[in-house]
Design a protein that fits this description.
362 residues; alpha/beta; Udp-n-acetylmuramoylalanyl-d-glutamate--2,6- Diaminopimelate Ligase, Chain: A, domain 1; UDP N-Acetylglucosamine Acyltransferase, domain 1; 3 domains; eleven-stranded mixed beta sheet; ten-stranded parallel beta sheet; 4 helices; flat
Length: 362
């Protein structure tokens, strides 16, 4: 593609000489690895240092980037866009052709039970099972070894990678992506203690509802509700190896990083960000726009929206980081206090000796 075609596609402005629009771009690259013919992008200020050394032919930058500071130093062509990272992502499919990992049709080894209903243009991989009463929407692709349980529903234009399991009765919306090993609708962890120390399993009679445009990572598990629904709302993005317990509700456009665990009946607000290895207790609520930093533990509800939290028990990030910084200083502080205590004791002994001998008095 030429820079002119790229700028037109992205709604961008080219800043270069008269020949710049006709320059041919042959590949996309990271800024620190780019070579002649490459288009790269600059979205994170940490990478601005590479502008002076990159061999890229052109770079996508934001409309507020100080282009003039660099145009006299380097020969690279700048393309200004609203969001260079999003623009770069839009270009990726134009330059890198990824083979379709799904079967183009229904594989002969797939098992489609009698009362299952399939929409138009559905593809189903080898040894997948679509159980009685299940419904699969138009254009949905189901990978090898997947199981869609009895009376489960999968919407239109979904992608279920190999070995995804959707248990009975669960509902998957439109344009949902489920990566390999994801389990939707396994039993919630409910066991009532008996007097003899054994446990009575609590029946898990609800379902999981996943709304439109959700993506769920590999080996993530979402438990069905004890009663009612475990609900993943529209636009949620969940990383690999996340555990979501029974009756949890995840609000719209929330993102959750790997190895996070959310206990039962907790409600997470809209537009929240949960970093890796966050642990959240059960039966609490997290306000909209909350950011919980990596490895934090949240034992209580967070009621004020749009704040960041860190640590265990999680506290407002700035306060928690100050406390952590003070904690790191604690060994040195203890040594200083011990030394001061010894000096005071020595001075007290000297003073006591002086008082006993009558020295130092007037």
């Amino acid at each position: 593609m030429t820079l002119s075609e790229i700028a037109s596609l992205l709604g961008g402005d080219i800043l270069g000489d008269e020949s710049s629009p006709s320059i041919e771009i042959t590949t996309l690259s990271k800024i620190e690895e780019a070579q002649c013919g490459s288009l790269t992008f600059l979205a994170n200020p940490k990478y601005e240092k590479y502008l002076l050394t990159t061999s890229a032919t052109a770079v996508l930058v934001s409309r507020t980037f100080p282009v003039e500071e660099y145009r006299t130093k380097i020969s690279i062509v700048f393309v200004r866009v609203d969001d260079p990272y999003i623009a770069f992502l839009r270009l990726l499919p134009r330059f890198i052709q990824v083979p379709d990992p799904f079967s183009p049709e229904i594989h002969p080894t797939a098992v489609i039970e009698r009362s299952a209903v399939l929409g138009d243009d559905v593809s189903i991989g080898a040894y997948a099972v679509i159980c009685d009463g299940a419904r699969v929407g138009n254009g949905t692709k189901i990978g090898a070894g997947c199981v869609i349980g009895k009376n489960a529903t999968v919407g239109n234009h979904c992608l279920l990678y190999p070995n995804v399991t959707v248990y009975h009765g669960c509902t998957i919306g439109n344009r949902v992506i489920l990566h390999s090993g994801a389990v939707i609708g396994s039993d919630g962890f409910g066991h009532a203690p008996r007097a003899d120390g054994t446990y009575e399993k609590i029946p898990q009679l609800g379902i999981v509802v996943i709304e439109d445009d959700v993506e769920i990572g590999a080996n993530t598990t979402i438990d069905r509700a004890t009663l009612g629904e475990t609900k993943i709302c529209r636009g949620v993005k969940i990383d690999n190896l996340v555990q979501i317990a029974h009756n949890v509700v995840i609000g719209e456009n929330t993102v959750i990083a790997a190895q996070t665990g959310i206990s039962g009946s907790t409600k997470i607000g809209k537009n929240c960000k949960l970093a890796g290895q966050v642990g959240i207790a059960g039966h609490i609520e997290i306000a909209d726009g909350t950011i919980i930093m990596a490895q934090s533990g949240v034992p209580n509800s967070i009621k004020e929206p749009n704040k960041a939290y860190f640590g265990y028990p999680a506290d407002e990030a700035r306060k928690a980081q100050r406390a952590y910084a003070a904690l790191k200083m604690l060994p040195d502080t203890i040594r200083e206090l011990t030394a001061l205590k010894q000096r005071v004791e020595e001075l007290e002994k000297k003073l006591h000796v002086q008082q006993q001998s009558g020295e130092g008095t007037t």
